[in-house]
From TrEMBL:
Lineage: Bacteria, Bacillati, Actinomycetota, Actinomycetes, Kineosporiales
Entry keyword Cell inner membrane: yes
A molecular function GO annotation: transmembrane transporter activity
Annotated localization: Cell membrane
Function, as annotated: Part of the binding-protein-dependent transport system for D-xylose. Probably responsible for the translocation of the substrate across the membrane.
Pfam families xrefs: BPD_transp_2
Residue span of region Disordered: 1-26
Database matches in InterPro entries: ABC_transp_permease
Annotated organism of origin: Pseudokineococcus lusitanus
PANTHER family per the UniProt record, alphabetical: ABC TRANSPORTER PERMEASE PROTEIN YPHD-RELATED-RELATED, XYLOSE TRANSPORT SYSTEM PERMEASE PROTEIN XYLH
Name the record gives this protein: Xylose transport system permease protein XylH
Membrane-protein topology: Multi-pass membrane protein
């Protein structure tokens, strides 16, 4: 006759049949130096950003962080940050896109022809621009994913092709102005909803809610890592990090509130960052992008439909290029044949400075945004100081080279290669 003990499985003799409970996984905490050492690439980006901001704040006697200049900084570089979001996903997948500047010009040109020349409603131009961007992305994705031509060649051809199409669409002339509603995308502000006392209360409320949401998500993420016995910072350090982030964000909000309020384009950018950060971190599609860039053969053997993923990566890049095209044409209040010139290099630089690996498989949306902000602060700071354009290009090129060299060093350090 089978005993209860036999059904439960064999138990060590002498323990009365009771199985000892599994020991709880230890919760590991770490100080700031350990975390910075273990995450040298990420921490280096943030430290560099802080150092650059402090340097130019000192050199410009505080003008860099003045309310009006911070507002202009958001308005002037928002489209580059939008492109950086898409570009970092392309680079993570192991590709590159050299055509985004031309696509920005083409989508803005299509919108301008429909709205300005043909008198259609402003929203029709935006929808048309998005459709064109999706079609361009599908064109690139087809040649890269299904024909097998390297993305460098496909998008280099696209850079020439879509620049030529822009010239055809505009007939080599500029078109302006857009209706006021269209201009609000890049130049509009939300303010006065909750009143004001020399500053915009609505802007402060929005940022305060954002800080509270960030604190909640960080607390949940910390608890999740603890549950899997992953290394986390000590509680005092965790609280200090939240307080520093809250102070920086609210100081930025105060500067905006004392200027013109909350820019509409900043809301658009924030939504894109949140959505794409979630997509890359928490979805199957995002994990498959990292898998393809990290090891294409392993991803194929694991059952990842690499052609499908690569196709949609480029479709997404086309979509975000169209969004950037709408923002840029709205900001410039028109469409020009030379619009978007060299934007692809700024977007690529933002991704690499933000920690993306040249070989693919590494990078984050937030890192690309920080990389874009580093480039924006440098450009804006040097303009305020009256630095010559040639010198600006030299400095930006050196910063990009040093950022990639640092990423290579961090990778070799992590793998033990010297």
């Amino acid at each position: 006759m089978t005993s209860t003990q036999d059904l439960a499985g064999s138990a060590p003799a002498g323990d009365g049949g009771a199985r000892p409970p599994a020991p709880a996984a230890p919760r590991r905490t770490s100080n700031v130096l350990t975390l910075m050492r273990d995450n040298v690439r990420t921490s280096g980006i943030y430290l560099a950003f802080v150092a650059i901001v402090l340097l130019f704040t000192w050199r410009t006697d505080g003008v860099l962080l003045s309310p009006s200049n911070l507002t202009n900084l958001v308005l002037q570089y928002s489209y580059i940050l939008v492109l950086a979001i898409g570009m970092v996903m392309v680079i993570i997948a192991g590709h590159i896109d050299l055509s985004v500047g031309s696509v920005v010009a083409l989508t803005g040109a299509v919108s301008a022809v429909l709205v300005i020349q043909q008198g259609m409603p402003w929203w029709v131009g935006m929808v048309a621009a998005l459709v064109v961007g999706l079609l361009v992305g599908a064109w690139h994705g087809f040649w890269v994913a299904y024909i097998g031509i390297p993305a460098f060649i496909v998008t280099l051809a696209g850079m020439l092709l879509f620049r030529g199409m822009t010239l055809r669409v505009l007939d080599n002339v500029s078109l302006s102005p857009f209706p006021e509603q269209y201009q609000q995308v890049a130049s509009g502000f939300l303010n006065g909803w909750f009143g004001g006392y020399g500053y915009d209360v609505f802007t402060l409320v929005v940022f305060a809610v954002a800080v509270a949401g960030y604190a909640v998500t960080q607390l949940r993420a910390r608890r999740a890592r603890q549950a899997y016995a992953q290394q986390v910072e000590s509680m005092p350090l965790f609280v200090l990090k939240l307080l520093v982030v809250a102070a920086v964000v609210m100081a930025f909000a105060w500067q905006l509130a004392t200027s013109r309020g909350l820019p509409v384009v900043l809301i658009v950018l924030a939504v894109l960052i949140l959505v794409y950060a979630a997509v890359t971190k928490s979805t199957i599609f995002g994990r498959q992008i990292y898998a393809i860039g990290g090891n294409l053969s392993a991803a194929q053997l694991s059952g990842v439909n690499t052609r499908k993923i690569n196709f949609w990566v480029f479709v997404n890049m086309g979509f975000l290029s169209a969004v950037a095209g709408i923002i840029y044409s709205s900001r410039s209040n028109g469409a020009q044949p030379a619009a978007g010139n060299m934007f692809e290099l700024d977007a690529i630089a933002a991704a690499f400075i933000g920690g993306a690996a040249v070989t693919g498989g590494v990078g984050t949306v937030v890192g690309a945004i920080v990389g874009g902000l580093i480039m924006a602060v440098m450009s804006n700071g040097m303009q305020l100081l009256g630095v010559e354009q040639s010198t600006q290009s030299i400095i930006r090129g050196l910063v990009l080279l040093l950022a990639v060299a640092f990423a290579v060093y961090a990778k070799r350090r992590g793998s033990g290669v010297r």
